[in-house]
Each structure stands twice: as structure tokens, then as C-alpha cells.
Amino acid sequence: MDSYTCPYCKRLLSLHSGTHITRRPSFSCPDESNFHGPNNHGPSESCIQVDFVKCPNCQRYSIFGVGLGSEVKDLVFKIKPVSSAIQFPDYIPVQIRNDYEEACAIVDLSPKASAAMSRRCLQGMIRDYWGISKNRLIDEISALEGKIPAAQWSAINRLRSIGNIGAHMENDVNMIVDIEPKEATALIKLIELLIQQWYINRHEQELLYAEIEDIYQAKEDLRHP
């Protein structure tokens, strides 16, 4: 990758020797920064790649890694920060924030579980923001139809269906339907978009309306002391 968005200050930074270093430790060569296995023929069975990124804007570090060796090829991990969760304002209900942050924290470890948490987060938002509460999420989403743009409603319904894969067993227990980390990440991005459009935009509109009202009242007081 040539660029990176800092998870702390959200600034885009270019990756070069002053902002990014890589280490590839392994069991047989734990301290070598660019170890490529015996006789330089590729990574050993235990090799992992750890990337360190320092943001020049906020001076904070991001540290993450991926397995390169045959014994650790499925390993993907974040060290700092633990997840890429956005720190949303306190006026968003704490349970919604908790479910969202958990979905972010486990997106690489268990994409299915992350998708299920995104589904749970969606249900919490529909109940809180729209005041729609029914026995099943599918019924709550059906009641939401017509209240939001059709494309958004369709995406929400798809999130529910994908989240079901993580939340419920298939009828055929031998059927394997996996969810990839990038797919679970897409669901998280939809949750972030809904939080922005439903909660944050509403809050900012209310602040603006209140500011306009205060200006009006101040001018009226001057006109009619």
C-alpha cells in the first residue's frame, strides 16, 4: 500500500521510510527485519509481517500484522489500535456504540460474528431512532419501508440477511457459507453511514436550528426592547 488513513485523526498519509517500517520475525530468525526464509527462498513456516505506521499529524502509532509462513498464513491481527472503530459521540445510545465497536474488534478474527453484531446494531438503531419494535428484525425492516430511500432500505435488508449467516445455523449443518473480512467490513461501513445520517446529521441540524432561533430572538429583543 502507498497510503494509509490514520485511525486516530483520520488524516491520509503517504507511506515512506519516515512513516512506515516493516519487520518479519520468525522462529528461526526472530530479529531480522527482512527475513525471507532459508536460502532466501521465501518466508519460513513461522514468518509473520508486522507493520508499524507513525502518523506525522497526530504522532500516534498503528501496528498490525499478517502471517506469511505456512503455519501462520491465516493470521491477521491488529495490535494498536485494537480495532478501526470510530469514536462516536455520547449522544448515540451506548448499546449501539458497544455493538458497533465489538463488530469492528472481531472483524478479522471472526467475520461471521462481526456480521451478526452489525445485524444486532442495526436492530438497535431501528428500535431507538425509528421507534419500531417487533418480534423479528425482518418485520421491523418491513415497517421501515417507505420511510427511507429505497436503495438504503434494500441495503439494510441485505445486511440483515448476511448477518443471519453469522447468527443462525443453516438447515443443512454440513453447508459452509463463509463471510470474508472485507465483506464484514462493508457491513460495518453501512452501520457507520446510518449512524452518520440518522444520528449525527439530526444532532447537527438541531444545533443549527437552535442557533438560528437564538439569533432571531436576539434581533427581536433589539427591535422590541
How would you characterize the overall build of this protein?
The chain has helices at 94-105, 111-129, 137-144, 150-167, 181-223, and strands at residues 3-5, 12-14, 20-23, 48-54, 61-67, 76-80. The chain has 225 residues and is α+β, with helices and mostly antiparallel strands. The strands form 2 sheets. A 4-stranded antiparallel beta sheet has the order 3-4-5-6, with no helix packed on it. A hairpin with a 6-residue loop joins strand 1 (3-5) and strand 2 (12-14). Helix 2 crosses helix 4, helix 2 packs parallel to helix 5 (181-223) and helix 3 (137-144) runs antiparallel to helix 4. The longest helix is centred in the last third of the chain and has 43 residues, at 181-223. The termini are far apart.
Layout of secondary structure:
Layout: E1 3-5, E2 12-14, E3 20-23, E4 48-54, E5 61-67, E6 76-80, H1 94-105, H2 111-129, H3 137-144, H4 150-167, H5 181-223
Summarize it.
The chain is α+β, with helices and mostly antiparallel strands. The protein has 5 helices and 6 strands; from the N terminus they run E-E-E-E-E-E-H-H-H-H-H.
Question: Numbering strands along the chain, what is their spatial order in the largest sheet?
Answer: 3-4-5-6
Head-to-tail CA distance between termini: 64 Å
Gross CATH architecture of the largest domain: Up-down Bundle
Number of helices: 5
What ranges have pLDDT less than 50 throughout 5 or more consecutive residues? 35-40
What is the CATH T-level topology of the largest domain?
Four Helix Bundle (Hemerythrin (Met), subunit A)
Number of domains: 2
What's the level 1 CATH class of the largest domain?
Answer: Mainly Alpha
Give the CA-based shape. Answer: flat
**Pairing-aware structural class of the strands and helices?**
alpha+beta
Oligomeric state of shown chains: single chain
In N-to-C order, the SSE pattern is EEEEEEHHHHH
Residues in helices, as a percent range:
40-55%
Please outline the major beta sheet.
4 strands, antiparallel
